[in-house]
Specification:
The chain is an alpha/beta fold. Helix content is 37%, strand content 11%. The protein is globular, with a radius of gyration of 23 Å.
């Protein structure tokens, strides 16, 4: 169990300046798109190898992503899932518990989603809701909160003893960068769904969430299931650093390399078969047939296009990290 870090951290303050920041990241240059895309492709290929290893060896992996609102959890998870076989990876993002689930053992609805052999399960928020939003927003009683703090280490130790690899990431973002992302979402109708009522309330409860995070870390940073903090003010660096770190936890995956397939010649076409006339089908209109030659590739001129790039706009690095 992790040690206490003193009153300054418990109050969500920096020991030197007293500002609302909890960790400091070293200034670094932004990654250009060309390097980012190339490195992301390389690491995602390694993720495919990892998945082959998980399936071949019957491994079970649980990834938990927690962190501040707008810290980039969804974008990080997307970079992990997009190259993988969807039959072997599952994303779990549960809604608030139903009336029936409220009567169950707290961990019951999460336990249902744990992986079988050969599976990777990713929790976009997890049982740690009780240590964060439920506690800060008074959605649970004080007794339920402390029961969780005492029970969670036992639950996670049990999972690890059963053979599950439990990896926990905390996406850390400064209050300045979080506010910038909130403002960006508020002004973009395509991203308004990312701005929940709880997000709006959290803007005024930075220190309360800081205290909740510190207490959670003190009780649940276990030798068998450590917390790994990702500095996420710069999204591109956060993506690459997390993928690199995740792969480093499973060095044995490098023993597996997917074999290339050699395809033989296709069977000759059936000369008796005659395709029905194209006019018999409802064809989706080819809106973009001559787009490249007439519009010069400007995505903002497309119907409903917003010019959003694959890289997911990176934020400028900030000193204070959550």
């Amino acid at each position: 169990m992790a040690k206490k870090d003193g009153k300054d951290r418990e109050n969500g303050k920096d020991k030197e300046g007293g500002k609302r920041k909890e960790a400091a990241s070293q200034p670094a240059r932004k990654l250009n798109s060309e390097f980012y895309e190339a490195e992301l492709a390389r690491l995602q290929f390694e993720l495919v190898r990892l998945q082959y290893w998980v399936k071949e060896k019957g491994q079970r992996i649980v990834l938990i992503f927690e962190g501040r609102d707008a810290a980039g959890k969804g974008g990080m998870i997307k970079r992990i899932i997009e190259p993988l076989n969807p039959r072997g990876v599952r994303l779990v993002a549960l809604n608030k518990p139903s009336d029936v689930e409220r009567t169950q053992w707290y961990f019951q609805r999460y336990t249902y989603h744990l992986p079988s052999a050969g599976e990777i399960v990713i929790f976009d928020r997890s049982w740690y809701n009780r240590a964060g939003v439920e506690h800060v927003m008074n959605f649970c009683t004080n007794e339920e909160y402390w029961e969780f703090m005492h029970t969670c280490p036992l639950y996670e130790q049990m999972l690890v003893r059963s053979g599950i690899h439990l990896i926990k990431y905390w996406m850390s973002v400064s209050d300045e960068e979080q506010e910038r992302r909130f403002q960006q979402r508020a002004g973009n109708p395509a991203k308004l769904w990312k701005l929940s009522p709880m997000d709006l309330i959290s803007r005024d409860r930075w220190v309360e969430y800081s205290r909740a995070k510190d207490t959670m870390m003190n009780h649940t940073d276990l030798p068998q299931a450590r917390w790994y903090q990702v500095d996420a003010d710069d999204k591109r660096r956060a993506h690459l650093n997390t993928l690199q770190h995740l792969l480093s936890l499973f060095p044995d995956y490098k023993s597996v390399m997917p074999e290339q397939l050699r395809l033989g010649k296709r069977a000759p076409a059936d000369k008796e078969y005659v395709r029905p006339p194209r006019a018999d089908h409802i064809i989706v209109p080819d809106v973009y047939g001559d787009y490249a030659s007439t519009q010069h590739g400007r995505s903002r001129d497309l119907p409903n296009g917003d010019g959003d790039s694959h890289a997911d706009e990176p934020g400028a690095p900030q000193a204070g990290q959550e």
